């Protein structure tokens, strides 16, 4: 099993739980609900910002810095006059190989964002207004995703480092679920 396959298998349950939680909050029922979703996205992507900017990670994962979506989330929030959460849970400090799991979670969410982007269109949001962070990469979602998975699979990691990354992926999903719950309380 490749590293990316192990990440997928390990996070299947937590990933499904987050997907169900997102849709149960009905983020596309209104601009107000979507604003709450943006607040959760903001917290998540701001937690990831230093990982996408990390020099060492960028040496291992070419183009990583350009993959981050934190600035696009902020742009979308400005489009809709959405403020950041004031009572968000503390952002975790993530280091070591655990960061690979967080980045895997974020990059994988871009594939699922295709469905969310279509839903956003139903409330008149798109790449130009309010949903730029959900828009497809210019290379296409699947090509972009496969290239990222190939990079992960080419990393030379010890079993302990892989275990740390698996833990990180689960922690990333759990954190996003926690900020969703705060945003939609």
Characterize the structure shown.
Helices cover 70% and strands 0% of the residues. It is globular. The protein is mainly α and 185 residues long. The longest helix is centred in the middle third of the chain and has 25 residues, at 98-122. The protein has helices spanning 3-24, 31-53, 55-60, 64-67, 70-79, 98-122, 141-154, 159-183. Helix 2 runs antiparallel to helix 6 and helix 6 (98-122) runs antiparallel to helix 7. The protein contains 8 helices and no strands. The mean pLDDT is 95. The chain has a single domain, classed as Heme Oxygenase, Chain A (Up-down Bundle).
List keywords for this structure.
Heme Oxygenase, Chain A; 185 residues; mainly alpha; globular; single chain
Topology summary:
Blueprint: H1 3-24, H2 31-53, H3 55-60, H4 64-67, H5 70-79, H6 98-122, H7 141-154, H8 159-183
- CATH topology, which one? Heme Oxygenase, Chain A
Number of helices in the DSSP assignment: 8
Q: Secondary-structure element order, as H and E?
A: HHHHHHHH
Distance between the termini: 40 Å
**Low-pLDDT residue intervals, each spanning 5 or more residues:** none
CATH class: Mainly Alpha
Number of domains: 1
Average pLDDT score = 95
Please state the structural category. mainly alpha
- What value does the Rg take, in angstroms? 16 Å
Query: How many E strands?
Result: 0
The CATH homologous superfamily is named Heme oxygenase-like
Strand content: under 5%
CATH architecture: Up-down Bundle
The biggest beta sheet reads: none
Shape verdict: globular
Helix content: 55-70%
């Amino acid at each position: 099993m490749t590293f990316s396959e192990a990440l997928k298998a390990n996070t299947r349950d937590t990933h499904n739980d987050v997907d169900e939680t997102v849709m149960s909050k009905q983020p596309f029922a209104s601009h107000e609900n979507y604003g709450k979703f943006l607040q959760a996205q903001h917290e998540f992507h701001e937690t990831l910002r230093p990982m996408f900017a990390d020099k060492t990670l960028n040496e291992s994962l070419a183009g990583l810095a350009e993959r981050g979506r934190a600035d696009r989330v902020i742009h979308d929030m400005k489009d809709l006059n959405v403020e950041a959460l004031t009572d968000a849970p503390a952002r975790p400090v993530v280091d070591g190989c655990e960061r690979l799991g967080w980045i895997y979670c974020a990059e994988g969410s871009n594939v699922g964002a295709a469905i969310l982007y279509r839903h956003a269109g139903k409330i008149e949001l798109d790449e130009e207004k309010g949903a730029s962070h959900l828009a497809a990469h210019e290379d296409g979602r699947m090509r972009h995703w496969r290239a990222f998975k190939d990079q992960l699979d080419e990393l030379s990691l010890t079993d302990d480092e892989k275990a740390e990354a698996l833990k990180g992926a689960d922690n990333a999903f759990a954190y996003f679920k926690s900020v969703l719950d705060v945003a939609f309380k």
